[in-house]
Every structure is written in structure tokens, then in C-alpha cells.
Amino acid sequence: MNELSLVILAYMLGSIPTSVWVSRVLYNIDIRDYGSGNAGATNTFRVLGSRWGTFVMIFDMLKGLLAVKLALLVPYYLQNDFARTNFQIGLGLAAVLGHIYPLWAEFRGGKGVATLFGLILGISPLTALGCVGVFLMVLFLTRFVSLSSILASLAFPVFIIVVFNVDNDTYRIFAVAVALLVILTHQKNITRLLRGCESKASIFKYRDRRRER
Questions:
Q1: Are the beta carbons of 50 and 145 closer than 8 angstroms?
Q2: Which residue, 148, 152, 162, 174, is CA-closest to 68?
Q3: What pTM did the predictor assign?
Q4: What separation, in Å, do the N-terminal and C-terminal C-alpha atoms of the chain show?
Q5: Residues 51-75: pLDDT tens digits?
Q6: Closest C-alpha to 63, from 143, 125, 107, 9
Q7: How many Cα atoms sit within 13 Å of 149 on the Cβ side?
Q8: pLDDT digits (tens, 9 = 90+) for 182-211
């Protein structure tokens, strides 16, 4: 397969509207009519709970991970690490674009954070683990999925540029762009966080009940 075909395939893979299909099949609703109106993992946590929120998050991550692995279907990229990384970024972005504007769901999707993470996991596993650590720590302390996503995305360029000092200008620029994109797509969440009216995820219930006693 040539590069253009793989990019189109990555977009179609990213277009799988996990939360929309889960909400329709299991609850006979459209997740986009509830909560924040967003078709992503955060709103699924909010509307359907942690069980299906976790399922949607993992599946959306896999979309980004599988998209970047499509580069391995081209023999040239098996031998050229620098070119492979750049092409994988392109494939991953196509999947993220598909998640935000899904072909299979009237082009009304999510914000792409989980799919972005899958992209990072496919290219830089250690960086992904670092971002996961930030995400889980913030989520445990605050129960805000949106805040956890924002801070994890801000940690991404720090890991790439400062911690691991990746020698790839394209990847460095991409890392900064990801952080800015996540902030841009979470403006409403940031406003709600500042106003103190952002919804918390229904996780760590046992811990929270103990604190309330």
C-alpha cells in the first residue's frame, strides 16, 4: 500500500465513533445529546460511568496506536527511523482528525485526547508512560478527567524536549502543537474548572465515601 492509502485508512480507523456506538447499542441514546455533548471518553465517564468510560478510552487509544503502526506496512520505513517517525505522526494525526470529525458519525466526534495518547504510545512508549503517570496522579487527586488530560498533554513536550531530548525537530514541534491543541479543545472545560462546576468522574467511590465520613 502507498502512503496516501495508509493515511486514508488511518483516518477511517480514527473515525470509528466508539462512544456513539456504545451509547446507541447498549442504552439506545446518543452520547452527544447528554452531558457536555462530546463524543469522547470524558463525556462517556460522565454519562455512562467508569466501566464504559474506560472501555471507550482504551478503544480510542487503540485507534491512534494502530494508525501509527500502519507505517510498518511500507518496507522503506522499516529501515529509516527518522522518516518512520515523521510518517507515523502523519498517520496518527489522520486518526485524530477522524476521531474529531468521524466519517461514521455525521462528522461530530470527540476531542481526540485518547487517540493522541495512542499515537504517542505507538511512537514513544516511555513518553506515553510518563504522560499516563501524570494523568493518573491528577485524576486520583482531583477526579477531573479534563484537567488530567490537559496536564498530561502539557507534560508531553516536557518529556520530548527536556527529559528525553528527542533529536527530531518535527516531533518537537508536534509535541508543542499537541499541548496547544488540547488546551484549545478544552476551553469549555477550563472555564467550568475555573467556575468550580466541572463534573467529576465516577471513580474512586470507595475512597471518596471514606473521606465523607
A1: no
A2: 174
A3: 0.84
A4: 60
A5: 999 999 999 999 999 999 999 999 9
A6: 9
A7: 29
A8: 898 888 889 999 999 987 876 655 455 544
Which amino acid, one-letter code, is at 109? G
HSE-up of residue 40 (Cα within 13 Å, Cβ side): 22
Calpha distance 48→52 (Å, rounded)? 6
Tell me which residue of 136, 126, 116 sits closest to 179, measured CA to CA.
116
Q: Do 43 and 34 touch, CB atoms closer than 8 A?
A: yes
Residue pair 166/172 in contact by the 8 Å Cβ criterion: yes
Q: The cell 515523521 sits on which residue? A: 86
CA nearest neighbour of 67 among 16, 22, 127? 16
- Across the chain, mean pLDDT equals 90
Residue 201, SS3 per DSSP: coil
The total number of residues shown for the chain amounts to 213
CA distance 134 to 142: 12
Q: Where exactly are the structural domains of the chain?
A: 3-208
